[in-house]
Structures are given as C-alpha cells and as structure tokens.
User: Fold this.
Amino acid sequence: MTTRKPRDPNAAKSAPAAPPEEAAPIDFEKALTDLESIIEKLEQGDLPLDESLKAFERGVELTRHCQVALKQAEQKVEILLRKTGQPEPFATHGDTDFNPNDPD
Assistant:
C-alpha cells in the first residue's frame, strides 16, 4: 500500500492557461475552402467522435465568418448602388418574390 503525501496548502497553484490568441483573420475564399474540406471529412464518417466534434465546431466558426463576410460585402454593394442612384436591395431566399431564374 502506498501512502500519499498530504497536499501543501501553501504550495503555489498553477496559473490558469491563458486564452488562445485570436487566429489571424482569414479571407472568405480560404474559409470557404476549409469549410468544404471539413464537410467532406465529416461526410466520410471516418473521424473519431472527438475529432468530429472539433471539426464540427471549426465548421460552425467558418460558417459564421463566411456569413459575416457576405453580409458586409452585400452592405458595401448596396451603399455603392445608392451612390449611383440605383438603390435596389438584394433579394434573398426568404423574400417572397425571389426567383433565381428571373434575370431581373
């Protein structure tokens, strides 16, 4: 039978790990490529559960990044169209009059 040393209450506690630094921002195309790669890996179903969860979390981050980038680009285009006198908002899939085959 082994005996354990009692813990010294005055011993220095380890400092909590510093939060990871923000990764350098990636461009939209790189984020989209990475997201497509993650989707392919997840669809294959060969990853262990832990790796699948990490990949899924990263995919969610990339999706949010892409959505923000697209929204910002849409807003910039709308501002430019207003300056040229053509303030037509973008139609989205949620709009009732959206028709992807309609050239107008």
